[in-house]
Specification:
Strand content: under 5%
Shape: elongated
Number of domains: 1
Number of strands: 0
Structural class: mainly alpha
Length: 77
């Protein structure tokens, strides 16, 4: 494996990982906030029992599905 291929793979990992991390965090935060407002739960309860599990699930889903759409958009090769 040459250095150009290694750099390309590292770039792909960083792009997919950072976009997945950011979007999962955003959606989990919004879900926890909406559930806090709708159900009237405490903030700590919503963040720990709704936000954290949804963040983990969304992160795995984004890691699995996001590369296809990023290739289509031209962000990764």
């Amino acid at each position: 494996m040459n250095s150009r291929k290694k750099i390309e793979d590292i770039r792909k990992i960083i792009v997919v990982g950072s976009i997945s991390l950011g979007s999962s965090g955003l959606y989990a935060f919004l879900l926890a906030g909406v559930s806090r407002i709708v159900f009237g739960w405490k903030e700590e309860f919503c963040l720990v029992f709704i936000g954290l599990p949804s963040f983990l699930v969304l992160f795995v889903v984004h890691i699995a599905l996001l590369p296809r759409y990023l290739r289509k958009a031209g962000l990764i090769d």
